[in-house]
């Protein structure tokens, strides 16, 4: 066994111990295929008001510009599929936001993983990324053999679907690299057909500025009236394209206690949401990603669904 494969195995074993669903490794370098796609996506203004997407174009495509001397990208998946979901007739939030904000949960696990790498292997430098830096998570996960990018632009795997978070460690250590997997979307267009705002403009291309998640989380202005009646009761994020995906019939409940929802969340009715106070908001979403939209943002979204 070479050092590269031995080190890779150490990393994958530790990732499993920390509760990650899977771990794949690819060589750090320029993402050639993604460059023209990202350029045309930005040119078409598919990022809407998310100006930050225009920043650090080079770093987004090349982690060696982000982490000096980096050789490998370690991609990790962490399951968030809940054992219980909200009632059918209520205002909905994306399943990923039920429990504690994933940024905190995953950052802690990544710190531990890097620490173990340094203890077991030696002086290894690197940085952890959880959806908060210019890193193309899905592209790296696909390059690392963890799945393929579906027509809804989410990462998909045959075994567990798509209800998981993606994170990376970019490190200055050469490792054994995983092979890319094949695409299994076939002729299926369920995600495209189900999107109520037609945000999936063509297979594998999502116009972010038409996505319900964008309107309910990212957009700070008023939601355009032309989308009235098209939100299917989603008030924070949206899971429609994932819910209809045939591969998600293989989703299994996560085993991360921090992702369990606040006890009150699953029982709240439409009336409860319409009458929500700032105190209840703080209590139910104390450590949740929903805090990102603030109380004013959530009530704006509920009002939009009501009118």
UniProtKB/TrEMBL annotation:
Example GO BP: tRNA queuosine(34) biosynthetic process
Residues engaged in binding [4Fe-4S] cluster 2: 195, 211, 238, 241
Cofactor(s) needed by this chain: cob(II)alamin; [4Fe-4S] cluster
Catalyzed chemical reaction(s): epoxyqueuosine(34) in tRNA + AH2 = queuosine(34) in tRNA + A + H2O
Pfam families according to UniProt: Fer4_16 (PF13484), QueG_DUF1730 (PF08331)
Binding site for cob(II)alamin: 60, 131, 155, 166, 213, 238-239
Active site: 131
Major site of localization recorded for this protein: cytoplasm
Gene3D superfamilies, per database record: 3.30.70.20
Enzyme class: oxidoreductase
Location(s), subcellular: Cytoplasm
GO cellular component: cytoplasm
Subunit structure: Monomer.
NCBIfam families referenced in this protein's UniProt entry, alphabetically: tRNA epoxyqueuosine(34) reductase QueG (TIGR00276)
Homology family: Belongs to the QueG family.
HAMAP family, alphabetized: QueG (MF_00916)
Biological function: Catalyzes the conversion of epoxyqueuosine (oQ) to queuosine (Q), which is a hypermodified base found in the wobble positions of tRNA(Asp), tRNA(Asn), tRNA(His) and tRNA(Tyr).
Protein name: Epoxyqueuosine reductase
